[in-house]
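The aim of this short unit is practical: by the end, you should be able to scan a pair of folded records and say something sensible about each. We start with the first protein, listed as its amino acid sequence and then its structure tokens.
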Amino acid sequence: VADRYRHENAILTNIRKARDEAEDPEHKRRAAELVDIVKDCIRRHTQLQSRLLEAGPLFRAEQDRQAFATPAAHAGLDLYGQLLAPLLPLPVEQSLRATDAFFAHGTGLRTPTSVRVGDLVDLLLTPPLEREHLGMEMPEPDLIATPDDSRFSDAQLSSAMALLDLEHDAPRRLSGLLAEARRSDPELPYLVALLAVHAASPPVGTAYRQGERRLLFAVDDGTELDDPEFGGADLIVGMALLDAAGMAADRKEAS
């Protein structure tokens, strides 16, 4: 602030010099306006500097006052133990008196509004505004058809799902599934491998909520995958049977 104060004083000196040396009346008028603006800036910065100098002692005094202030003599209200818990078993008619008294005192003073006859007449005589229940009309969006950039077709997805539609008591190795998929379509093993990797973390909760009867799963038992295109673990891929009715009964008993 002190640096700004010195800079503004230097600016004020230069503007005054330019005003005194100017011969054009318009230039003199503009220079005089600038002098008033810079004076106002200097005055504001002087006030700011004085407030900054007072802030330190004021802060320390307020801090001391709060640190050494005596605690409040009255005890606080336990909302749960003194208000909520005693009122929960009571009927609504009996609990209204206590809740109304609590909120009336807790919200503080409220100034009652006085009704003016002129305002009341204007409100009664003003015709009602027409309201649109559905809101403003939404503009029609410009839809752009996105190109189909999916790598696999619907037929390939159907083939992969049919290949992974296993019996619940007959799981298979991923290597065997990849070899069988490669015999029918050279691109199909990539889709089968992708579905098998996703099955390593099956969404059991989602399947239960949707009422699914079967769920594809994959387990790694440490066997290495022997495949010309893929590496990693030779997963055991299988189909698990879900007891949706039993799961719903368990949730009902838990609740």
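Turning to the second protein, read its sequence before its tokens, just as you did above.
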Amino acid sequence: MSTIVGLLYNQLRMNSERILLLPYKFLLFDLDHTLLDFDRAEDLALTFLLEEAGVASQEIQVYKDYYIPMNRAMWGRPQPWFAYKS
């Protein structure tokens, strides 16, 4: 990993004159659902976690069906497929 960082640093240093000429002060990346697929990552992570915890494969979806809507509600992400009951 440090080799990659070193290569990137050297590349930036060598190209610093060109970088300074860019009209931008900041470069923002929109990661969620643009560059990264968080829903897929969440699904894979939950599957791995539950398998490692010894949950039977036929029960994994039951855990996901409970966890995912609850987690999204806590983060304030609207879920059109999840009916909130008051």
